[in-house]
Amino acid sequence: MSSIKHDPITTEIIQSSLQAACDEMFVAMRKTAMSSIIYEVLDFGTAVTDSNGNIAASGAGIPAFIAMCDKAVQAVIKKYDSNQIKEGDVFATNDPYNGGVTHLNDVIVVMPVFSKGERIAWTANIAHWPDLGGMAPGGISADAKEIFQEGLQLPVIKMIENGNPIQSVIDIITANSRVPQYTLGDMWAAIASIRVGEKRIKDIANKYGTEIFKNSVQQFMDYGERTSLDALSSLPHGTYHGEDLLDDGRKIQVDVTINDKEFIVDLRNNPEQDDGPNNASYDGTVVSAQMAFKGITSSDFICNAGTFRPLKVLCDEGSMFNPVRPAAQGIYYETDIRSYDLIWKTISHLNPNKSSAGSFASICGTFMGGQHPDTGATFIIIEPQVGGWGASSVGDGCSANFSAFHGDTFNTPAEISEARHGVYVDQMRLTDEDGGEGKFRGGKGIVMDYRVRSKNAWVSVAYTRSKSLPWALDGGNEGGSNYIEVIRKNGDLEKYSVVTGLTLEPEDVVRIHTGNGGGCGKPELRDKSMIEEDLLNEYITLEQAKKFYKYN
Amino acid sequence: MLRVATDVGGTFTDLVYFEIDEKSGKALSIKTAKSDTTPSSYEKGVFDAIEKGNVDIAKSTFFAHGTTVVINSITERKGVLTGLITTKGFRDSLEIARGDRPDFFNLRYQKPKPFVPRYLRAEVPGRIDFLGKELNPLDLSGLDDVIEKFKKHNVQSIAVCLIHGYANSMHEQKVIDYIKSKWADVDIVASHQITREWREYERTNTTALCAYIKPIARSYLDKLNDKLITSNFSGNPYVMQSNGGIDTFESTKTIPLTMIESGPTSGVLGAAELGKLIKENNLITLDVGGTTAKCSLIENGNVKINTNYWIEKNRQSAGYPVMLPVVDIVEIGNGGGSIAWVDNYDKLHVGPQSAGADPGPVSYGKGGNSITTTDANLITNRINQNYFCGGEIKADMDAVSKTIEPLSKKLKFTNAETARGIIRIANNNMINALKLVSVNKGYDPRDFSLVAFGGGGGMHATSLAKELNIPKVIIPVNSSVFSAWGMLMSDLRRDYILTKLTTMNDQAIDILNKTFIEMEKQAEESYKKENISKELISFKRFGSFRYLGQDHSVEIPITNSKFDEASIKKIIEDFHTQYEKEFTYKLENQVDMIQFHLVAFAEIEKPELQERKVTNIKVEDAVKETREIDFDEMGVHKSNIYNFDLLEPGMEFAGPAIVEDPSTTVVIFPNQKCKVDKFANLHISIEGGK
Do the Cβ atoms of A327 and B138 come closer than 8 Å? Predict the structure, then answer.
């Protein structure tokens, strides 16, 4: 409608419509996906970018997926001439070295949006597809040495041309999946989702006019940039150095430089790339830096290209934060959360309104499988774990929450786990272990028991922050450790933080422990009434009160 | 003879009643009254309204009541100190919750605090499995100590929720019996009395909330009942429930949490009843009040019920689950009193803060100093400046101009442009809420009509419908007291839900036959206890099904009264069809039934509604005046202002126009046409949508 003036209200409504489009794409994916990791764990995200692949708005179930899809769009633009990018085309990549960001299971599909013959935007979707081949079912193996062992690579390919599926490409994908029905189902769900977005963006552009649309998108990014710059100007400027240890004892380190215009994360001089799958692509490292940047600047939900314009990330090629082919990247998430947590540790104290001590900071990815003892059907548990969050200068940390990479992630209720997986959950409670004491104490980790009922069951885990513990602030105590114990039927006890395919027998118990978050302030400064409340609630024992808080 | 409904809101207590002609059974007239809500003792406000409306309660045969007593006790944390008894190993279920964190970038996130502190959460050994089989016997030996501890800490109410208590209530029942035998006067509630659904955190929290408010809700209903009796009321009093039906005081007192959404649901129910009368089965409802807007969706005449209901859930907080059948409503902080503000980046926002009723919008002249949506509607002349609140208040337009000026300055707008901007932003907020109940759940708004009510429904509905391509807007007559009207049209409704994992093969035949009959018996017995005769009872059966290994299930209606091989096959087919409709694909996988759902209605005699009289006045005679109305992008037009009270069945007119009565303003845009139906509801057709 031509009578609509280009005014701030129209701009506002277009911007809010972009968000609504992403949300609608998100819902479309959630409704139509076939894999539970998508529709339950919400391991997926959606986005709209401008015509050059700068992120305009996104929808995600987890914050780690908020700003991921733009890299794929940019990879498409880089690889294909504009005359090869036509209305109705769909491109895909899962290549972490080429716009794919994470690991081969996360496939990003993108499509251009045209209005009156002009490319004005892209819609995109990233989701964890259940299986694309590789040496282990589900693609992720702690034993992988090269990316070739982790599944089929889709190196920025075209899969739909002018709306017509390129059958040979789809056949290759189908042939390489152990669960082709699910993979195809999720693929079509992803395509349906970006098509919904394409239609909505078109509607908006047609209603308000292409120019006004493009302008509003750019203004939205400028707004994102302004809010970030304002936040930077209120942070103390300088260069800040931070270090941390990996569980194997190696040191990682960062220099963060903050000035009026820039936020530079220098991750050079870090360990070389890993022989196994514990590497994260440069793009993945950028996402970690973006999350830490967002954490220190603004907690709102505006995350567009403008928001991150002041951010620069430097990494050495061939390091664990920027590996070169063919390094494996299956467990990228534990590497990403290490760089994220390192950056947060380095800058957290700079904003007294947002700072917090370190949390249990691991995905604590837990995989268990076997035959359901009642039905004989194969069951597989794939789940992250909840743990303790760091304390702050204004209060105790949050207990039993998923890591900062998660958001709308829900744990599996014991009642459902027992029915679906044929295990017994004998307990799911807050831990009594030491760690995280302080004027304000870290939130509590958990203890959860899976008692196995079936023969030939197995468990795999790859937890970090098992030996190198959650860091404290202002003289508080370090948090606790993430690990599992396997208590055999005969009472034998084994302890692991990384293990692959450990065989389990009926009545064996897998006991999951996650750590308390770090404390803030010296424990002896804790208010007596708070100690007594903790004693009343049995958050601490009298022994712990005496030992750590000098309570008498 | 009278039929009376009262609805206690945040600010006002509404009363609506029908006078019934005893010979014909027809409703003669509908009358309303309003009084201030009296938070210290709500029953006082109810009787104030009864007095103000000159209602002789002794002549009333029916009294229905909507109340916020439960939700307020929860929101204000004014429940009683509550203890919890749960299965060994699960004391922290309330605190671990589900581990989700909607506030993505907040590293100081705090979970909502459990309603029962850890020191009042006790465990008992003993275990049931998911099939209801006892794995370990219940051990009550520690309960005496627990009781003593609870007494020492002045616990007033106890919640009992054991693992898999939905599958077998034996252990929960034993715990309750034991405690009652030792401590007769404590309030106690067990999870199986509320719901038989799985998911321990949701069920535990629901049980804890129920225990937390039980003594308060019980004593409130008792006091109200006493007052009714002393006023010689001889009929049955009923309370509006969250599931879209009403229920007796007696039944409500055992599980008073069912009143949690007592207020908002009656409007949705009213829309469904109105839909039956005017033969509109697919409706989106919009209720715009002073502080919030609420939306819901009705498909094929059925109000959507959801047992995955959360309170206080938003982008900053995970909220608390309430595992009860609740009408599916989306509520946003956007009403007539919502405040417009400009942020540091010169962006205009509306809400969620509200000026409330006191001081209210600037135009009230009661000292309000923030511009609200209502003020913006006055500037555009959509609300009549000379007939504000039915002429009760002189709109203080000078104050409005002065107050909006700084906003306009920041935005570099004229005041008129700012006012339009405020309305467009408010509309946009409501559009997003309407999308949540429609588009985002897979419904196409083009298949629905929009029923708008509450004080501000008519003011915004036509713009919203245009934007969402909804072809028709319906504004009910008496739309400002529509919620209370809904209660007068309601039947008794009780929902029974049972999680029972059943593979849909030959063995399912027996299980389905037995389970539904058992549930029906339970419902009949509960009605029988209250002397409700069997002939009035009717049932609706539903089942939730899913593919093996999946979590999301689909509820489908089950029409069979008896099951055999063929009917099981038919149910499976129905499931495939419905699943494909909702999720776009179907699978070859095994189908499981997860949940049995029985709705037991008990019919209540309802009056037949009187049609509005046709006196054959012309439509022009209903025009009270003309005004220059600002229709934003459609321009400023001299428009007819119609008196709602004078409109008669069969009348038709086109926009630009406004329809007014003392409490409602209906905006009809150019190109929109309005028809009056036989009850004097307005049907506005929206030209072409976008």
Answer: no
The CB density around residue A444, as the number of other CB atoms within 10 Å, is 34
Q: Which of B536, B568, B602 is the last residue of a domain?
A: B602
CA distance A141 to A278: 10
pLDDT of residue B306: 87
SS3 label, residue B593: strand
Of B201, B347, B633, the CB nearest to A413: B201
Task: For residue B361, give both structure tokens.
Answer: 């919008």
> Measured between alpha carbons, how far is A368 from A460 in angstroms, rounded to an integer?
6
pLDDT at A1: 36
Q: For A204-258, how does the pLDDT look when each residue is reduced to its tens digit (9 = 90+)?
A: 999 899 999 999 999 999 999 999 999 999 999 999 999 999 999 999 999 999 9
Q: Are B260 and B74 in contact (CB under 8 A)?
A: yes
How many residues can be counted in chain B? 690
Q: How many helices (H) and strands (E) does chain B have?
A: 16, 35
Flag whether residue B650 sits within 8 Å of chain A, measured between CB atoms.
no
pLDDT score at B688: 56
Q: Please check whether residue B28 lies inside any domain of the structure.
A: yes
If DSSP codes are grouped into helix, strand and coil, which group holds residue B451? strand
> B636 near B630, Cβ under 8 Å?
yes
Can you tell me the distance from the alpha carbon of B50 to that of B5, in angstroms, rounded to the nearest whole number? Answer: 10
Q: At residue A476, does pLDDT exceed 70? A: yes
Residue A137 CB partners (closer than 8 Å, separation 6+): A131, A178, A380
Give the integer Cα–Cα distance in Å for B264 and B328: 10
Note the pLDDT tens digit of each residue in A24-51: 999 889 888 888 778 777 889 999 999 9
B24 Cβ under 8 Å from any chain A Cβ: no
Quote the number of domains for chain B: 2
Give dist(CA B479, CA B661) in Å, integer.
10
- CA nearest B107: which of A330, A538, A351, A41? A351
Cβ-contact B124, B88 below 8 angstroms: yes
Strands A498-504 and A493-496: what pairing?
Answer: unpaired
| Number of neighbours of residue A269 by Cβ within 10 angstroms | 13
Cross-chain CB nearest to B582 (options A31, A223, A407): A31
Write the residue in B100, B501, B549 that is nearest to A410 by C-beta.
B100
**pLDDT, average across residues B112-123:** 98
For residue B13, the cross-strand partners are B8, B35
Question: What ipTM does the predicted assembly reach?
Answer: 0.94
Judged by CB atoms within 8 Å, which residues 433-452 of B form the interface with A? 435, 439-442
Tell me if B687 is assigned to some domain: no
Q: Which of B87, B103, B104, B341 to mutate to test the interface with A (most CBs of A within 10 A)?
A: B104
Q: Is the pLDDT assigned to residue B5 strictly greater than 80?
A: yes
> Residue B507's domain spans which residues?
492-602
Question: Which domain CATH number covers B6?
Answer: 3.30.420.40
Q: Does B191 touch chain A (CB under 8 A)?
A: no
Distance from C-alpha of A332 to C-alpha of B687, rounded to nearest angstrom:
54
d(CA B46, CA A552): 55
The answer to whether position B403 is within a domain reads no
E strand or H helix at B127: strand B127-128
Q: Which of B602, B631, B658 is the last residue of a domain?
A: B602
Q: Specify the amino acid at residue B281.
A: N
Distance from CA of B561 to the nearest CA of A (A): 29
Out of B95, B118, B164, closest to residue A415 by CB: B164
Task: Say if B47 falls within a structural domain.
Answer: yes
pLDDT tens-digit profile of A392-434?
999 999 999 999 999 888 999 999 999 988 999 999 999 999 9
